[in-house]
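ok trying again, last paste got cut off:
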Amino acid sequence: MNNPELNHDLFTPWLEQWQLTIEGEAFASRNGYLLPVSQGGQPAMLKVSQEPEEQAGAQLMAWWAGEGAAPVLAHDHEALLLQRAQGRATLAGMVADGADDQATHILCRVIGRLHKPSPKPLPALVPLQQRFESLWGAAAAHGGILQLCAASARELLASPRDVGVLHGDVHHGNVLDFGAAGWLAIDPKGLYGERGFDYANIFCNPDHHSALAPGRFARRLEIVAAASGIERSRLLRWVLAWAGLSASWMLEDHEDPGGVMQVAKLAGSALGLIE
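nice, full thing came through this time. structure:
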Protein backbone atom coordinates (compact mmCIF):
# COMPACT_ATOMS: atom_id res chain seq x y z
CA MET A 1 0.00 0.00 0.00
CA ASN A 2 1.65 3.20 -1.14
CA ASN A 3 -1.20 5.56 -0.30
CA PRO A 4 -2.78 4.89 3.07
CA GLU A 5 -5.59 7.35 2.33
CA LEU A 6 -6.98 4.87 -0.19
CA ASN A 7 -7.24 2.14 2.41
CA HIS A 8 -8.45 3.74 5.61
CA ASP A 9 -12.01 2.55 4.94
CA LEU A 10 -10.74 -0.98 5.56
CA PHE A 11 -9.76 -0.02 9.11
CA THR A 12 -12.48 2.52 9.92
CA PRO A 13 -14.83 0.27 11.95
CA TRP A 14 -12.08 -0.61 14.42
CA LEU A 15 -10.48 2.82 14.43
CA GLU A 16 -13.80 4.09 15.74
CA GLN A 17 -14.74 1.13 17.94
CA TRP A 18 -11.39 1.01 19.75
CA GLN A 19 -10.75 4.77 19.65
CA LEU A 20 -7.49 4.51 17.76
CA THR A 21 -5.22 7.21 16.38
CA ILE A 22 -3.38 6.55 13.12
CA GLU A 23 0.39 6.79 13.54
CA GLY A 24 1.80 5.62 10.24
CA GLU A 25 1.16 4.31 6.75
CA ALA A 26 -0.91 1.21 6.13
CA PHE A 27 0.85 -1.71 4.48
CA ALA A 28 0.06 -5.19 3.24
CA SER A 29 1.41 -8.47 4.56
CA ARG A 30 1.02 -11.84 2.89
CA ASN A 31 -2.38 -12.49 4.47
CA GLY A 32 -3.67 -9.15 5.68
CA TYR A 33 -3.35 -5.41 6.08
CA LEU A 34 -1.69 -3.54 8.92
CA LEU A 35 -1.83 -0.01 10.24
CA PRO A 36 0.36 1.52 12.98
CA VAL A 37 -1.92 3.18 15.53
CA SER A 38 -2.06 4.18 19.17
CA GLN A 39 -4.72 3.64 21.81
CA GLY A 40 -4.72 6.06 24.68
CA GLY A 41 -1.13 6.92 23.87
CA GLN A 42 0.01 3.28 23.74
CA PRO A 43 1.68 2.27 20.45
CA ALA A 44 -0.24 -0.52 18.76
CA MET A 45 -0.64 -2.32 15.45
CA LEU A 46 -4.05 -2.93 13.88
CA LYS A 47 -4.23 -5.95 11.61
CA VAL A 48 -7.21 -6.84 9.43
CA SER A 49 -7.43 -10.14 7.58
CA GLN A 50 -10.16 -12.18 5.93
CA GLU A 51 -8.02 -15.34 6.08
CA PRO A 52 -9.34 -18.02 8.49
CA GLU A 53 -5.75 -18.96 9.42
CA GLU A 54 -5.01 -15.39 10.46
CA GLN A 55 -8.23 -15.13 12.44
CA ALA A 56 -7.43 -18.38 14.25
CA GLY A 57 -3.96 -16.99 14.96
CA ALA A 58 -5.55 -13.92 16.53
CA GLN A 59 -7.55 -16.15 18.87
CA LEU A 60 -4.35 -17.92 19.88
CA MET A 61 -2.55 -14.63 20.48
CA ALA A 62 -5.35 -13.61 22.83
CA TRP A 63 -5.16 -17.02 24.56
CA TRP A 64 -1.45 -16.56 25.26
CA ALA A 65 -2.26 -13.27 27.02
CA GLY A 66 1.27 -11.93 26.58
CA GLU A 67 3.05 -15.14 27.71
CA GLY A 68 5.77 -15.28 25.07
CA ALA A 69 3.62 -13.46 22.52
CA ALA A 70 2.81 -9.81 21.83
CA PRO A 71 -0.03 -8.65 24.12
CA VAL A 72 -3.45 -8.41 22.48
CA LEU A 73 -5.26 -5.18 23.28
CA ALA A 74 -8.46 -6.13 21.43
CA HIS A 75 -9.70 -8.54 18.78
CA ASP A 76 -12.92 -8.88 16.82
CA HIS A 77 -13.28 -11.51 14.09
CA GLU A 78 -11.04 -10.25 11.26
CA ALA A 79 -9.41 -7.45 13.29
CA LEU A 80 -6.59 -7.77 15.80
CA LEU A 81 -5.05 -4.98 17.86
CA LEU A 82 -1.59 -5.78 19.20
CA GLN A 83 0.83 -3.86 21.33
CA ARG A 84 3.45 -2.57 18.89
CA ALA A 85 7.09 -3.57 19.27
CA GLN A 86 9.22 -0.52 20.08
CA GLY A 87 12.67 -2.07 20.45
CA ARG A 88 15.19 -1.43 17.70
CA ALA A 89 17.02 -4.77 17.72
CA THR A 90 16.16 -7.61 15.35
CA LEU A 91 17.17 -11.23 15.52
CA ALA A 92 18.21 -11.20 11.86
CA GLY A 93 20.44 -8.23 12.60
CA MET A 94 21.86 -10.05 15.59
CA VAL A 95 22.79 -13.00 13.36
CA ALA A 96 24.33 -10.66 10.77
CA ASP A 97 26.44 -9.10 13.52
CA GLY A 98 27.88 -12.47 14.51
CA ALA A 99 25.64 -13.16 17.52
CA ASP A 100 23.84 -16.23 16.18
CA ASP A 101 24.19 -18.07 19.50
CA GLN A 102 22.40 -15.24 21.29
CA ALA A 103 19.61 -15.15 18.71
CA THR A 104 19.15 -18.92 18.95
CA HIS A 105 18.94 -18.77 22.74
CA ILE A 106 16.31 -16.02 22.50
CA LEU A 107 14.21 -18.04 20.06
CA CYS A 108 14.39 -21.08 22.33
CA ARG A 109 13.31 -19.05 25.37
CA VAL A 110 10.34 -17.61 23.50
CA ILE A 111 9.27 -21.04 22.26
CA GLY A 112 9.54 -22.39 25.79
CA ARG A 113 7.19 -19.67 27.03
CA LEU A 114 4.72 -20.30 24.22
CA HIS A 115 4.69 -24.01 25.07
CA LYS A 116 4.08 -23.44 28.76
CA PRO A 117 1.02 -25.46 29.86
CA SER A 118 -2.11 -23.51 30.77
CA PRO A 119 -5.30 -24.59 32.54
CA LYS A 120 -7.37 -22.43 30.18
CA PRO A 121 -9.53 -24.14 27.53
CA LEU A 122 -7.64 -24.33 24.25
CA PRO A 123 -8.62 -22.16 21.29
CA ALA A 124 -9.40 -23.77 17.94
CA LEU A 125 -6.17 -25.32 16.64
CA VAL A 126 -5.18 -27.21 13.49
CA PRO A 127 -3.74 -30.73 13.96
CA LEU A 128 -0.08 -30.69 12.97
CA GLN A 129 -0.46 -33.53 10.48
CA GLN A 130 -2.68 -31.33 8.30
CA ARG A 131 0.27 -28.97 7.88
CA PHE A 132 2.22 -31.61 5.98
CA GLU A 133 -0.13 -32.20 3.04
CA SER A 134 2.17 -30.37 0.62
CA LEU A 135 5.13 -32.56 1.56
CA TRP A 136 3.35 -35.79 0.67
CA GLY A 137 2.64 -34.53 -2.84
CA ALA A 138 6.11 -33.07 -3.34
CA ALA A 139 7.80 -36.29 -2.21
CA ALA A 140 5.70 -38.32 -4.64
CA ALA A 141 6.36 -35.90 -7.51
CA HIS A 142 10.06 -35.17 -7.01
CA GLY A 143 11.44 -38.09 -5.01
CA GLY A 144 15.02 -37.85 -3.81
CA ILE A 145 15.65 -36.32 -0.40
CA LEU A 146 12.03 -35.18 -0.21
CA GLN A 147 11.07 -38.83 0.20
CA LEU A 148 13.44 -39.03 3.15
CA CYS A 149 11.88 -35.87 4.61
CA ALA A 150 8.40 -37.29 4.16
CA ALA A 151 9.35 -40.60 5.78
CA SER A 152 10.75 -38.73 8.78
CA ALA A 153 7.59 -36.63 9.06
CA ARG A 154 5.30 -39.66 8.85
CA GLU A 155 7.28 -41.43 11.56
CA LEU A 156 7.16 -38.42 13.88
CA LEU A 157 3.48 -37.74 13.30
CA ALA A 158 2.60 -41.39 13.90
CA SER A 159 4.20 -41.40 17.37
CA PRO A 160 3.95 -37.87 18.81
CA ARG A 161 5.55 -36.89 22.10
CA ASP A 162 5.03 -33.82 24.30
CA VAL A 163 2.09 -32.50 22.30
CA GLY A 164 0.54 -29.12 22.93
CA VAL A 165 -0.12 -25.68 21.48
CA LEU A 166 2.28 -24.74 18.68
CA HIS A 167 3.05 -21.37 17.16
CA GLY A 168 3.72 -23.05 13.82
CA ASP A 169 6.00 -20.43 12.25
CA VAL A 170 8.71 -19.42 14.72
CA HIS A 171 11.56 -17.68 12.94
CA HIS A 172 13.80 -14.65 13.32
CA GLY A 173 11.26 -12.29 11.73
CA ASN A 174 8.35 -13.43 13.89
CA VAL A 175 10.00 -12.73 17.24
CA LEU A 176 10.30 -9.01 17.93
CA ASP A 177 12.03 -6.73 20.41
CA PHE A 178 9.46 -5.33 22.85
CA GLY A 179 12.00 -3.44 24.94
CA ALA A 180 11.51 -3.95 28.67
CA ALA A 181 8.94 -6.70 27.96
CA GLY A 182 11.61 -8.73 26.15
CA TRP A 183 11.35 -10.68 22.93
CA LEU A 184 7.83 -11.77 21.97
CA ALA A 185 6.29 -13.71 19.10
CA ILE A 186 3.76 -12.59 16.49
CA ASP A 187 1.90 -14.23 13.57
CA PRO A 188 1.18 -17.76 14.85
CA LYS A 189 -0.42 -20.41 12.66
CA GLY A 190 -2.21 -22.04 15.58
CA LEU A 191 -1.30 -25.73 15.45
CA TYR A 192 -1.53 -28.63 17.88
CA GLY A 193 1.17 -31.26 17.91
CA GLU A 194 4.64 -32.21 19.09
CA ARG A 195 6.68 -29.29 20.38
CA GLY A 196 9.78 -30.24 18.38
CA PHE A 197 8.12 -28.83 15.28
CA ASP A 198 8.39 -25.26 16.58
CA TYR A 199 12.15 -25.55 17.14
CA ALA A 200 12.92 -26.97 13.70
CA ASN A 201 12.34 -23.76 11.74
CA ILE A 202 15.22 -22.07 13.56
CA PHE A 203 17.65 -24.11 11.47
CA CYS A 204 16.43 -22.70 8.13
CA ASN A 205 16.48 -19.03 9.10
CA PRO A 206 16.87 -16.06 8.96
CA ASP A 207 18.15 -16.79 5.45
CA HIS A 208 19.88 -19.66 3.74
CA HIS A 209 23.28 -17.97 3.70
CA SER A 210 23.16 -17.56 7.49
CA ALA A 211 21.70 -21.00 8.12
CA LEU A 212 24.42 -22.67 6.07
CA ALA A 213 27.41 -20.76 7.45
CA PRO A 214 30.27 -23.16 8.33
CA GLY A 215 29.69 -24.86 11.67
CA ARG A 216 26.36 -23.11 12.26
CA PHE A 217 24.09 -26.14 11.92
CA ALA A 218 26.07 -28.13 14.49
CA ARG A 219 26.23 -25.19 16.90
CA ARG A 220 22.49 -24.53 16.64
CA LEU A 221 21.80 -28.20 17.18
CA GLU A 222 23.83 -28.12 20.38
CA ILE A 223 22.03 -25.02 21.69
CA VAL A 224 18.50 -26.05 20.74
CA ALA A 225 18.85 -29.60 22.05
CA ALA A 226 20.10 -28.30 25.40
CA ALA A 227 17.48 -25.55 25.68
CA SER A 228 14.53 -27.67 24.61
CA GLY A 229 15.48 -30.94 26.28
CA ILE A 230 14.55 -32.75 23.07
CA GLU A 231 16.59 -35.83 22.20
CA ARG A 232 19.17 -34.90 19.56
CA SER A 233 18.12 -37.55 17.04
CA ARG A 234 14.45 -36.63 17.35
CA LEU A 235 15.22 -32.95 16.92
CA LEU A 236 17.18 -33.78 13.78
CA ARG A 237 14.22 -35.73 12.41
CA TRP A 238 12.02 -32.68 12.98
CA VAL A 239 14.53 -30.50 11.15
CA LEU A 240 14.55 -33.00 8.28
CA ALA A 241 10.73 -33.02 8.19
CA TRP A 242 10.44 -29.23 8.43
CA ALA A 243 13.04 -28.58 5.74
CA GLY A 244 11.18 -30.90 3.39
CA LEU A 245 7.90 -29.16 4.14
CA SER A 246 9.45 -25.76 3.52
CA ALA A 247 10.95 -27.00 0.24
CA SER A 248 7.55 -28.30 -0.86
CA TRP A 249 5.96 -24.89 -0.29
CA MET A 250 8.75 -23.22 -2.24
CA LEU A 251 8.23 -25.61 -5.13
CA GLU A 252 4.52 -24.75 -5.12
CA ASP A 253 5.47 -21.07 -5.35
CA HIS A 254 8.00 -21.76 -8.14
CA GLU A 255 10.89 -20.73 -5.91
CA ASP A 256 14.31 -22.37 -5.63
CA PRO A 257 14.35 -24.68 -2.57
CA GLY A 258 18.10 -25.24 -2.76
CA GLY A 259 18.90 -23.65 0.60
CA VAL A 260 16.39 -25.60 2.65
CA MET A 261 17.32 -28.78 0.78
CA GLN A 262 20.88 -28.25 2.00
CA VAL A 263 19.57 -27.97 5.57
CA ALA A 264 17.68 -31.22 5.01
CA LYS A 265 20.90 -32.87 3.83
CA LEU A 266 22.75 -31.68 6.93
CA ALA A 267 20.06 -33.19 9.15
CA GLY A 268 20.00 -36.41 7.16
CA SER A 269 23.77 -36.68 7.30
CA ALA A 270 23.82 -36.08 11.07
CA LEU A 271 21.28 -38.90 11.42
CA GLY A 272 23.45 -41.20 9.31
CA LEU A 273 20.79 -41.42 6.60
CA ILE A 274 22.88 -39.70 3.93
CA GLU A 275 26.51 -40.40 3.18
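cool. Residues 232-252 form the longest helix (21 residues). Confidence is low (pLDDT under 50) at residues 1-6.
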